[in-house]
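Why does this matter for the project? Reviewers at the last site visit asked to see concrete outputs rather than summary tables. In response, this paragraph embeds two records directly. Each consists of the residue sequence and, immediately after it, the corresponding structure tokens. Nothing has been edited or filtered.
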Amino acid sequence: MAAPSVVPVAYQGNSTSAVLPEWLNKGDNAWQMVSATLVGLQGMPGLVILYAGLVKKKWALNSAFMALYAFAAVMPCWVLWAYKMSFGHRLFPFWGKAGPAVSQDFLIPQAILPSTNHYKQNGDLETAAVQPFYPMASMVFFQYAFAAVTVMLLAGSLLGRMNIKAWMAFVPLWLTFSYTVGAFSVWGGGFLFHWGIMDYSGGYVVHLASGTAGFTAAYWVGPRLKEDREEFPPNNLLLALAGAGILWMGWSGFNGGDPFAANVDSSLAVLNTHICAATSLLVWTCWDVYFFKKPSVIGAIQGMITGLVCITPAAGLVQGWAALTMGIASGSIPWYTMMSLSKKVPLLLKVDDTLGILHTHAISGILGGALTGLLAHPKLCNMFLPVTNSRGAFYGGTGGVQFLKQLVGASFIIGWNVIATSVILLVIRVFLPLRMSDEELVIGDDAAHGEEAYALAGQGERDRSTRNAATPASVETQGP
């Protein structure tokens, strides 16, 4: 295919001529880069400091590092092979061919690249709705941020006991053999896309996958020490709130960037995102007050997250009243599974999911996907996904079939992540222990990294002689 034509443009104040492709839309490209950066900020520093604040003090550094490492480790894997496995040419109906995304191809828009993702249905060729008017490099960066955040979310199930070396091996393997499958199947032109599964911005690809894989990994890695599992107070709730705030505001890019254009749909997606998140936070808080007599800051954070996750598969596909309805559901159903069912169901009691990622991401992701199948507006569906007669069941027609499709799509994501995550960890276990030793678990950060998060008097400084005017008596009065 011929390269896109360009027109010469002389930049003011610079004698050097430059070329500007005539297909380039600067506004769309600017919004995509901003959206990608917002999603990246959700991970670094958002999730890094959220995890650091929510865990016990002795695990603050290790938890932050697990997230930080994942954010960095995904990038080279993504540009060398994983991006093309997610959004490239078809290898299998659920998987793309591996290849680098750092060649000259990154200079031209995704839509101009040759594609084997075309699919014949009802006499028409269908392709992904994505035909952006900006370089492929913008798309690679945007989708990298999604992939990185997915692995970082998964880490929330494993905090406080996983061997850091095993985690370092796990990240690239899980990205390659699990994340890319879901991304290609639902977004990259795979069989779920052509079947009409609706996942606007990652309710399935990101959240259901991370929640399922995190819970599965927690099963294989094993639980924290009994004393940690029974008493795991957050060491810094204000830090956790800062991370949660970055996560919430970053979701404007997470959902607003997925029309791949600065258009009407992106504005609707951003507004719906915040409607659902705020409603969910308030509903969760009301349940806490009703049953426990006090509003919980941690509960408010959980409610915020479940709202953000629930609206994600539907953000640009539903009207405002539907986003409000989804917020009520996401503040109630995950609250019930986390605060009630998790204390009754044997499997949930056995598996130590440190931050409840199963509830906040997997259950909320399924809930959002199912509600998308009920509430997706036909006209909004046609703006995003060019599959004939896509609509929610609420609008009649083929909507009932769509609802069932959403459930089947969720089943595939769950099944693949359970199997792939289990196989990856069982292979790693042959070479590395998945869990730290009990001696290391007692110590925490210092055993894992030789460092500690806080240099407080009597709690972090190694050389007491460097403490200003600190006497033995004054040190003893500092408290735990």
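We now turn to the second protein, recorded in exactly the same manner.
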Amino acid sequence: MRCDKKDLLLYAVTDRSWLGGETLYSQVEKALKGGATFVQLREKELDEGRFLNEAREIKELCRKYQVPFVINDSVEIALAVDADGVHVGQSDMEAGDVRAKLGPDKIIGVSAQTVEQAVLAEKRGADYLGVGAVFPTDSKADAREVDHKILRAICEAVHIPVIAIGGISKENVMELAGSGVCGIAVISAIFAQKDIEAAAAQLRESTEKMVEV
């Protein structure tokens, strides 16, 4: 298994929006100390040189905490820093092409909104699926909501782990109980909080309860 579903329990997706004078490195470290089990580096604005340096630093940090580290969208950056893998959306390179570039031992995550997309991603070599938005979200302007019935149907249709993403917070995470997901991916629920470490710890505890229900 390239990707154990236990690693996907609390999946932290980075965002520079809430740095407030801090470094992304220190924020990610707080999230890891709080119990994040997986880190995705998501950069939409950085130039390639800075993205590369940041990816190298955060990869080493995740290695120290023995947590998988993937890059959002950029197969090139993932290859350059020897990240654990890549997460791609529906409009990015499809999973089979990513697998051809990354090789057999890297993690590939794919975003999916429908059962058809999920089944196809699994067939093409995805290791896990990120499904959402499961609640309204401000983090992605183009995110459309996925009905919880569809979320459950996706979990039943595939054999690979599924995580829910989009608008998840400590207040609503329990609403996902019984859906079949093995974890959650969050951005603002960790990185927009005053105490990142405490926020991650609280979310991890709630998610463990939600998954067991």
